[in-house]
Amino acid sequence: MADKKLAVLLSGRGSNFVAIADNIARGRLSGCRINVVISDKMSAGGLDEARQRGIDTLVFPRKNYDTKQAWEGAMIAAIEDRSIDYIILAGFMRILGDAFVESFPQRILNIHPSLLPSFIGLDAQRQALEYGVRYSGCTVHFVTSDLDAGPIIVQKVVPVHSDDDEESLSRRILEQEHIAYSEAIDLIVNRGFIIQGRRVELQ
Q1: Binding site: what residues are annotated?
Q2: Hey, which residues are catalytic here?
Q3: Phi-psi group of 33: left, alpha or beta (phi > 0 → left; psi -120 to 50 → alpha; rest → beta)
Q4: Do domains 1-104 and 110-203 have the same CATH topology?
Q5: Where are the domains positioned within the chain?
Q6: Which pairing describes strands 152-159 and 135-142: parallel, antiparallel, or unpaired?
Q7: Which of 12, 25, 141, 163 has the largest CB neighbor count within 10 A?
Q8: Which CATH number fits domain 110-203: 3.40.50.170, 3.30.470.20, 2.40.50.40, 1.10.150.120?
Q9: Which CATH architecture best describes the domain 1-104?
């Protein structure tokens, strides 16, 4: 069976992309390959990482398009042209509209630095500290039209220490993100799944 083709979307350094690419290269994640890395920013560090690994890159700056619809349409066309199986959001800092999400149902994965459904949106680590929770973590989920509300694939729990600040908690959560994302991709690509309500279950 041919490897599933992944498109990774990122806006920055792409540490989750690097972790996934490393796991594929080391044989820890099989059954898939990264076909292209797409960014909305020419300066994204993850693009350089991709080029060094021989992975194709595409850049779609939002400012180059008159409307969000045109911008998303260009990305949709590029992804469809490559027959991509799954789209991996790895620090892509723009909210994708309904047209994009509905073009790839149950094929877009995202990672969020909290135990969803708690602390959706930006600054999830700060939200966790301000609320005073004892545990936080990360969640890999399918993307739907509702923000951070898609079916949950994998979660990792991280204790919140009494002396944590946003930086220290973010760092420990990111370590678990690098593990969780590859686990989630493996589940989706290699094991078969069904969606039951807000959860993804193995078949």
Answers
A1: 14-16, 68, 93-96, 110
A2: 112
A3: beta
A4: yes
A5: 1-104, 110-203
A6: antiparallel
A7: 141
A8: 3.40.50.170
A9: 3-Layer(aba) Sandwich (3.40)
Residue 180 is which amino acid? A
Per-residue pLDDT of the chain (203 residues; tens, 9 = 90+): 789 999 999 999 999 999 999 999 999 999 999 999 999 999 999 999 999 999 999 999 999 999 999 999 999 999 999 999 999 999 999 999 999 999 999 999 999 999 999 999 999 999 999 999 999 999 999 999 998 999 999 999 999 999 999 999 999 999 999 999 999 999 999 998 899 888 898 87
